[in-house]
Amino acid sequence: MHKESDPVTVEGTKETLGFQTEVRQLLHLMIHSLYSNKEIFLRELISNASDAADKLRFEALASPGLLEDQPELKIRVVFDPEARTVAVIDNGIGMSRDEVIANLGTIAKSGTAEFLGQMTGDRRKDATLIGQFGVGFYSAFIVADRVVVETRRAGLPEDQGVRWISDGQGEFTVEPVSRPERGTSVTLHLKDDESGFTESYRLEALIRKYSDHIAFPVDLQESGKGAGDPRVVNSATALWTRSRSDISDDEYREFYKHLAHDFADPLLWSHNRVEGKREYTSLLYIPSRAPFDLWNREAPRGLKLYVQRVFIMDDAEQFLPLYLRFVKGVIDSSDLPLNVSRELLQQNPELDAMRGALTRRVIDMLSKLAASGSDEDRASYDKFWQGFGQVLKEGLVEDAQNADKLLKLLRFASTRDASGAQSVSLADYLARAPESQERIYYLLSDNPATARSSPHLEKLRDRGIEVLLLTDRIDPWMVAHLPEFEGKAFQDVGRGQVPLPESGGELTQDALNEEHKPFLKKIRRTLKDRVETVNVSQRLVDSPACIVTGEQELTPQLRRMLAAAGQAIPESKPTLEINIGHPLVERLAAEINEHRFEALSNIVLDHALLAEGEQLENPVEYVQRMNNLLLELGGAVA
Ligand code: ADP
Question: Per the confidence metrics, is the pTM higher than 0.85?
């Protein structure tokens, strides 16, 4: 089954298995970097117990027999100071032997290995990274040097219980046990210096802090010598069912951490009850930083669906568009049927309306922050943009309906801001553009350094015109979907002719070319296999030449990406523009030696391509031409 979990030894029915490599890495990193956050293990284990209870309740809708004689779902935390143990016990869904081996021996999230590969060894940084990953069950090993899990899957007979034991060092054992109780108990044998976690008041405070809002009662009970009666220590009402005015910000934050398995506070949330034709409650959160698998468009999404408080599914992807996949939260519907499935959801006519409303809620939440005048909010939004901006840009491609609102959320790097941060909004841009400027100028490029030194910016820079610098992977797609913003069209400064404000006096391309006809004819003939045409440039000041994209052509960035993805791209040659006043071009125009004219023309073109971030088709030829030229120069010097 799992390659790394092949049995190492088998004694009777007890098996010793090895953890998957990723689990070993995670365990190691966690133990070393989360020591200052160690109490979170309790939240993680109680969250798992609550999920297990949710799942059982859901399965019991179809098979009520699963509840056996224990229909009341609850969680118990039992501690024994003398034995130095804490146990989190649930009567939820439980696990079969195969499930135990898969769930507590491997990590199923895709991209895990790459993610763990980014760990630096710096504790603080790694702690943040691990927080983004979500540690879950394995966090038990931060405080325990031995963990014993006993579990029985609801519906399986008593003798199919399983005991799982590990010291978190690389291996675990599984063996069958007889287990009358359904569900799971996770017992932590605490490390020597962690006996503080067997203090009643401390456990109580932690449960209150982390798990108050969980829909199931959490009992706390001492066992062993000082054994006492269990008492419920949380309020056991699902947070989203309470009224907004009764919920403190801290409670909202803790609920988010439970829901998202995130260490960091959420950035924003929005809690709403919709009444009338459709009735549902939504509690939507925006995380403060991106999860490790944000780029995986297939990664599970963060919404949980409940129907009348009964958990129905995780990863309810139908309620928000893909570009809002970073949103976490809960939807609790009063009118969807309890037996709703993903397939039924897709056919549900109500769903489009709900999805539209939830999408607007998320956008409005972000818009409010983005438009806020306070420095603190501005900084928060910038941070949000850094983490999620590229994903939000997908919205312009996918969701034309909300384009106007999404445009206001965009942030750009710009020629006006040397920091290179993406922090300029379109409103900022227009506010400082002259009245007469009819367009919003942007440049597409592969990376910020190439963008900043692009020849296409020269004339605009001379004229003091701000240009937005677009270097994200998604940008070439996004710009194809940009509508106007406040009546101003977007203009790619690397494409076709670029109309500048108050430029009445400038000549048309044809008129410009006319003056240099013989020279152009000669260079066009020389480069005819490599370029569509050669024109006299109006956009250059310091550079001898640049590459321009035709009005209907794919941008070079898009061509490169499609090519890298192995896609067929239409054959097309670039247009070369030359700066007629540049000494090198003057030198070229004056060149009478055919051979040298050819070499120089090609070098001018090669350099224009290189400045664009392009790979030369024949770099060896370029190097030879350059070498010859240098040798000639050497000859001249000698
Ligand atoms: P996550 O909860 O993020 O999936 P964990 O490492 O915490 O990751 O748990 C892995 C899996 O183990 C869970 O998805 C669940 O299937 C199973 N699991 C953990 N704790 C329990 C429990 N108390 N009862 C049933 N299943 C559990």
Answer: no
